[in-house]
Amino acid sequence: MSNTPVGAKRPFRLGIDTGGTFTDLVMMDEASGEVTLVKIASTPQDPSLASLQVLHRCLQEQQAAADDCIHLVHGTTVATNTVIEGKGAKTALLITEGFRDVLEIGRQIRPRLYDVFCDKPLPLIPRRRCFEIPERLDSQGEVLKSLDEEQVGNVAQLLQDQDIESIVVCLLHAYANPAHERRVARLVAQHLPDVPITLSSDLCSEMREYYRCSTAVVNALLVPVVGRYVGRLEESLQAANVPDVLHLMTSSGGIISSTIARERPVHLVESGPAAGVISAAHLGGLAGYTQVISFDMGGTTAKLGLVENETPRIAQHFEVGRQASIADQASGYPVRTPVVDLVEIGAGGGSIAWVDDGGALRVGPRSAGAAPGPACYGNGQLAPTVTDANLVLGRINPDNFLGGEKHLEAGLAAEAVQTLADEFDMSLLEAAHGIIEIANTNMTEAARSVSVQRGFDPREFTLVAFGGAGPLHAAAIARELQIPRILITPHPGVASALGLLVGDIKHDFVQSCLRPTQEIDTGEVETILEQFQQAGAALLASEHVAETEREYLPLVDMRFQGQSHELTIPMPTCDRQNRESWISHLHATFCQEHQRVYGFSDQREQSEMVNVRLTAVGHIRRPSPPALIDTGPDAFKAVTTRRDVYFTETGGAIECRIFDRELLSAGNRISGPAIIEEYDATTVIPPDFRALVDPKGNLLLEPSMNVTR
Predict the structure, then answer these.
(1) 80: alpha, beta or left, given left = phi > 0 and alpha = psi -120 to 50?
(2) What pairs with residue 705 in β-bridges?
(3) Residue 77 CB partners (closer than 8 Å, separation 6+)
(4) Residue 652 has pLDDT above 90, yes or no
């Protein structure tokens, strides 16, 4: 409870993260930096309900005034779920004559190359709602065939009779010249003034027709749905007397205003997962670790990402609606917008264990979610989940879940796991351990894919584990990949919500500019960057970002001539007026990155520039927790009880000390096996690990042989 006098002004910031199982809120006092957290069950039928419930509960418990909120950031899965569930708006596509089947044809690659029964995902817009427009530009944007405005009018009249909710305009080579797309939009708007229109050239000014079209289509499908969701949220916040300060987290880890989010909801597709990686980068940096692997395990999924030099790695494209397997590339819909580079798999606390047709035990991707939840919730779920297995193994306290707010039924968990034990003719504990081992293996492979497969050695990183279930499984993943250190932050269960409060405002711009490196016109590059900076400055000004807090980061996509995929590198900072020096430095920087990613590079090979990019950043204030007083290594005062916990390292169940994390102090050391409990998470310290509480209150887990005695 704050000591602020009743009635006094008490500015605060809020982060609200809506997940598949829980909705988390973090409140940060603007003056003191004090952080408060609240966690409640999500409301899948309408995620905004849980967002408002958790807000009202926080305001009531903290006796805070809603109009003192100066910054509210929301992370949501609404955009992702809309695409996955096929519940997007009824959308029509207007495309260049002769290219009506671009969505049907898609790409040449398949999800599983040697599976003859493998089907591509169905087009997001059926062919009957794809309409051809007579016009044609060449790759330089020159007009080969003028726009047939009469046909545009005819198509618009057809759309009037079909109750179309959203429209996409994607014309060939519009990235080089958007004039035809913009003219089509104006003509269609005369007939359908209330229907939102997405232009591919506004959203993704890059070559590659299918990728640009797919990106625009995903955005158009989401505009009405996300618009309604954000609108309801804004109205409810206004009714609760919260000022107009709503922002949303984007896929790239930045935040944007609710107004921009309505227009470009495609940027929200990986909203929630991105917040977790941003949080890991921030909290890892505060603890002095700049190279981290982010491990976020919640109730429905596990997300892993990589942070290099305190900066999350950003990819320039991703797939939405992809199947759960890491190997199932091309099983979703490509989106060409910047995204935090992460892997997400169906392995959470609520992931269901099942037996496949071959008789093998599998875990996920299907989840029990928030309702009914795991079997131990007592809501009728009969199949065992990861949470049930952890409860059977003694790793979770059934009487201290969410600080005791929710009681877990250990008997129901045992009954669910026993069904698998009977099928495999093994003991209850062996079956529960098998569920955990399979889940750990799936998550280890995901961690390997964001590190080893990206050209990084996990032995040089720190694993930052969070989410309600992350600290339960972190040690197993670190052991397998030989990651030397695990960092578990205070309140790990709501770390993603904290990530919402430490993300900067960001806007990304891109323009295709395919040129051999030796033929690059630096003046052309300067012009593109100046236009981007002007647009970025206008957006940041509209979001009330002071000029002193603005930063503009130029990037460039490069590849060797003959390659079909490019790498994004920072644009050299040396003077672009010295053309020869700048081009030489650009080529050398690209070759170094190619060597790191692929293990080979030849500077004698000719390279080429593909896209020019710029990220406009508005820096925000970040909370920094105060240092704790070091009370020495003795942690005995934090021991609350003892109970048997199953570990294969000890050959079965062994009595463990149970610690209350709130009673731990800086300098405390704990030898495994041990369990550390707190309001929103449980940390498992296996027998071969030890833990240290650092000055920021973080738990540092290391293999016993690496811990300084």
Answers:
(1) alpha
(2) none
(3) 18, 19, 20, 47, 271, 272
(4) no
- Contact indicator for 373, 21 with CB cutoff of 8 Å: yes
pLDDT for the residue 644 = 94
Q: What distance in Å separates the CA atoms of residue 351 and residue 359, rounded to the nearest whole number?
A: 18
CA distances from 372 to 82, 381, 401 (A): 21, 6, 16
- Whether 12-82+227-264 and 505-618 share one fold: the answer is no
- Asked if residue 699 lies in contact with residue 474, where contact means CB atoms within 8 angstroms, the answer is no
Given a cut of 70, whether residue 692 has pLDDT beyond it is: yes
SS3 334: strand
Q: Residue 413 and residue 384: Cα distance in Å, rounded?
A: 7
What CA–CA distance (Å, rounded) separates 494 from 489?
10
C-beta separation of 220 from 168 below 8 A: yes
Give the CATH number of domain 12-82+227-264; options: 3.30.450.40, 3.30.420.40, 3.40.718.10, 3.40.50.720. Answer: 3.30.420.40
Strand 652-660 relative to strand 69-75, pairing: unpaired
- 223, with CB counted inside 10 A (0-12, 13-18, 19+), is buried
**Token code pair at residue 328:** 């199932």
138-165 pLDDT, tens digit per residue, is 999 999 999 999 999 999 999 988 889 9
590 contacts 567 by C-beta, under 8 angstroms: yes
- Give dist(CA 555, CA 566) in Å, integer: 12
pLDDT above 70 as % of the chain: 96
**Biggest CA pair distance of the chain:** 82
**Cα radius of gyration (the chain):** 26
How many other C-beta atoms can be found within 10 angstroms of the C-beta atom of residue 438?
20
For the segment 216-222, the average pLDDT, to the nearest whole number, is 95
Crossing angle of helices 428-450 and 470-481, rounded to 10°: 70
CB distance 593 to 576 below 8 Å: no
Task: List, as one string, the DSSP characters of 656-694.
Answer: EEEEEGGG--BT-EEESSEEEEETTEEEEE-TTEEEEE-
| Residues 331, 319 contacting (CB under 8 angstroms) | yes
Q: Looking up tokens 């030489």, which residue turns up?
A: 584
- The architecture that CATH gives domain 86-224 is 3-Layer(aba) Sandwich (3.40)
pTM for the model: 0.86
Q: What is the pLDDT of residues 414-432, one digit of tens each?
A: 999 999 999 999 999 999 9
Q: Could you read off the pLDDT of 633-647 as tens digits, one per residue? A: 888 888 999 999 999
Helix (H) or strand (E) holding 130: strand 130-133
Here the tokens at position 67 are: 């109009």
Q: How far apart are CA 466 and CA 654, in angstroms?
A: 25
Question: 571: which DSSP letter?
Answer: P
Burial of 432 (0-12, 13-18, 19+ CB in 10 A): buried
Give the number of other CB atoms < 10 A from CB of residue 316.
20
Q: Where are the chain's structural domains?
A: 12-82+227-264, 86-224, 301-460, 505-618, 636-706
Q: Which CATH class is domain 505-618?
A: alpha beta
Q: Which two tokens stand for residue 699?
A: 């738990």
